[in-house]
Amino acid sequence: MGSNKTEQINLIQNRLKNLNDDELDQISYLLSLYQASSTEQPKTNIPMHFLGRFLGIEQKEDGTTEMKLGIQNENTYGVAQGGSIYTLADVAIGFQILKSLEKGEKVFTLELKVNFIRKGQGARLIAIPIILYQGKTTVVSECDIKDEAGNLIAKALGTFYLQSGTKIKPPADVTDFERS
């Protein structure tokens, strides 16, 4: 295994020599994600998944979620790419819901709609989720995405599914077709 690791490092080093400055910046950013995930302790009890870390998303203690803007989430025109804004809203709402769940419960996005209002520009975007309704199996929530000046960039509205830690077994007389 040690020689395989050495071979991989040498291969990576040789590939790095052929990259331009922009590509090296991108690789440096990716490496920083791995270093941060292994050295930094999460500020909350809910860890951020890799896509969130890749996009520069961080959950704040005040209930907001922020996304640092940069090469990792900008579009061809140098502003926040719509999918990254969508993901910011989804993550912010998901974290807000997770705070209220019991151990073993899970949350899944059923539907999420985002209206884009302004270009996402500046150093960061801030997501402010609000739970509108939380039932036994569904949650309805909205989320404002704002820039640092407080301008509304996007507005999301979503429905989320709550799954309990234990699955309910169907009666033995129910066929497989009826179970699906």
Give a verbal description of the structure.
- The chain has 180 residues and is an alpha+beta fold.
- It has two domains: 1-40; 47-179, Hotdog Thioesterase (Thiol Ester Dehydrase, Chain A), CATH 3.10.129.10.
- The protein is built from five helices and six strands; from the N terminus they run H-H-H-E-E-H-E-E-E-E-H.
- It has helices at 2-16, 21-39, 50-55, 82-98, 176-179, and strands spanning 57-59, 65-68, 106-116, 124-134, 138-147, 152-163.
- It has a six-stranded antiparallel beta sheet.
- A hairpin with a 5-residue loop joins strand 1 and strand 2.
- The longest helix has 19 residues, at 21-39.
- Residues 174-180 have low confidence and may be disordered.
